[in-house]
Design a protein that fits this description.
Blueprint lengths: L5 E4 L25 H7 L11 E2 L2 E2 L9 H10 L12 E4 L9 H8 L2
Antiparallel strand pairs: 1-4, 2-3
Length: about 110
């Protein structure tokens, strides 16, 4: 119920899942791509964003691993700023103006 109001703002990528967390504008990547993407990128379901983005650069595969899913993901990154690696990851509650979750803001959302 409240999941749509929780977003992740990636920084150094050490806390958020590359595969499961909502850190990219397309949403959690597992909902858009198959597990083959992870294999092509040399990642696993347990990988963090920091394993794909190192020092502000995406680690794109070369050769045969650069398949259609990798191409599609790379296209999505063309309109996306790579997270700043010098700041910490943070979770943002979009259910309130402050960005901080509270019982009051949660109850307000549930009063639909």
């Amino acid at each position: 119920m409240v999941q749509p109001y929780i977003t992740k703002e990636a920084g150094d990528g050490k806390l958020f899942s590359f595969w499961f967390d909502f850190w990219h504008p397309v949403g959690p990547l597992f909902k858009k791509f198959s597990g083959n993407l992870l294999h092509s990128l040399g990642l696993s379901k347990k990988s963090y964003i920091a394993e794909f983005i190192l020092d502000g650069e995406c680690k794109w595969p070369k050769g045969r691993r650069f398949n259609i899913e990798v191409r599609i993901l790379k296209q999505h990154f063309s309109n996306f700023s790579v997270p700043a690696h010098e700041v910490d990851d943070r979770t943002i509650w979009t259910g309130s103006k402050s960005g901080v979750i509270s019982a009051q803001s949660t109850m307000k959302l549930l009063e639909l």
